[in-house]
Amino acid sequence: MSVRVGILGATGAVGQRFIQLLDGHPTFELAALTASEDSAGRPYREAAKWRVDSPIPVDVAEMTVRETTPEAVPDDVDLLFSSLPSSVAVDVEEDFARDGYVISSNSSNDRLAEDVPLTIPEINPDHLDLIEVQRDERGWDGALVKNPNCSTITMIPPLAALDRFGIERVDVSTLQAVSGAGYSGVTSMEIIDNAIPHIGGEEDKMETESRKLLGDFDGAAVTWHDMDVAASCNRIPTLDGHLENAFVDLADDPDVDEVADAMREFPGVDLPSAPNQLIHVFDDPERPQPRMDRMRGQGMQICVGGVQSTDHGVKFNCLAHNTVRGAAGASVLNGELLVENGYL
Ligand SMILES: NC(=O)C1=CN([C@@H]2O[C@H](COP(=O)(O)OP(=O)(O)OC[C@H]3O[C@@H](n4cnc5c(N)ncnc54)[C@H](OP(=O)(O)O)[C@@H]3O)[C@@H](O)[C@H]2O)C=CC1
Ligand SMILES: N[C@@H](CC(=O)OP(=O)(O)O)C(=O)O
């Protein structure tokens, strides 16, 4: 089966990752690229300042960038990946869904909307069926599906593995790469020889999205997990890969080996972009490290290390590639789940 796909916001940092990940994809055939009015009408190679660590695919380089409107995208495109600024996406994504397109979006708008699935295929694939509720309520033929924030997605797989021991509270502190802010988000003068102990909106996203992701879906609505989550977010001068230190209070008292085994054995999914093993647990206390470990599982694996018991539960470190597993890769995986579950 081949599905014709497009990318909204294709010239940006995440849009370029989409192009890289879709090159040679077994199911998805890239058929449309959109961006702002400044880029529309230009060949992609001219409109995009290409910065990904592999060449622009030859056929993509010559594609003409389109306007980001439903009229500008061919009708035979079934699935759109969205990496628009959220201020733009909030209206535009709804226009496309109303027009019949299915959208797998990485932008932060609407992630907490009651009828919008916020999905990680290995964690809560059942939440995808919120699409039925969404279509009933909004009268759409299309659909809007979201993946979480990059810092949130990094800690969720290990937390999902721990939930069998009864998570009561999570305290997490992040060390986030500069690519998370986009290419012009943090200047070199701000970040070299430095760390910035604030990332606007990020703590709130981690504290809320995590509870929706680990919540229960009863076929009509998601009841959020009742754990307390407190996050502290920091920017550091790594290029890619968010590292996080998590402290988790548990109802039960598992030993370190039980915790590590629960993470190692946490099941993956059989989708083209999914890693064979979702969580890699290091015994070496100096791992994971961003530069060494962010590309494990082609950037889609979650790395964990430093698992230790505490008075109230466990602590560990976790790492994921923020623009692959944390952004474009997460949307592509959701697209694969949409195909698998018959939504396309
Ligand atoms: N960078 C990262 O690691 C992560 C980013 N995200 C989220 O993904 C989204 C994209 O981020 P990123 O790729 O870094 O952003 P960029 O600024 O690099 O790219 C934005 C894209 O949107 C297009 N665009 C901007 N304004 C408009 C408009 N008015 N109409 C149509 N298209 C427009 C741009 O086109 P043009 O080139 O023509 O201006 C470009 O293609 C954001 O919502 C961000 O929060 C999420 C997780 C990680
Ligand atoms: N805020 C993230 C990147 C991002 O854009 O997240 P979101 O997808 O929630 O907008 C970072 O700075 O690393």
From TrEMBL:
Pfam families hit by this protein: Semialdhyde_dh (PF01118), Semialdhyde_dhC (PF02774)
Record-level GO BP terms: methionine biosynthetic process; threonine biosynthetic process
Record has NADP as a keyword: yes
EC number, UniProt record: 1.2.1.11
EC supergroup of this enzyme: oxidoreductase
Assigned keywords, A-Z: NADP, Oxidoreductase
GO molecular function: aspartate-semialdehyde dehydrogenase activity; NAD binding; NADP binding; protein dimerization activity
InterPro entries: ASADH-related, Asp_semi-ald_DH_pep-lack, NAD(P)-bd_dom_sf, Semialdehyde_DH_NAD-bd, Semialdhyde_DH_dimer_dom
Domain Semialdehyde dehydrogenase NAD-binding residues, every copy: 4-131
Catalytic site: 150 (acyl-thioester intermediate), 242 (proton acceptor)
Family membership noted in the UniProt record: Belongs to the aspartate-semialdehyde dehydrogenase family.
NCBIfam families membership: asd_EA (TIGR00978), PRK08664.1 (NF006416)
Protein name: Aspartate-semialdehyde dehydrogenase
Protein species of origin: Haloplanus rallus
Lineage: Archaea, Methanobacteriati, Methanobacteriota, Stenosarchaea group, Halobacteria
Gene (UniProt): asd
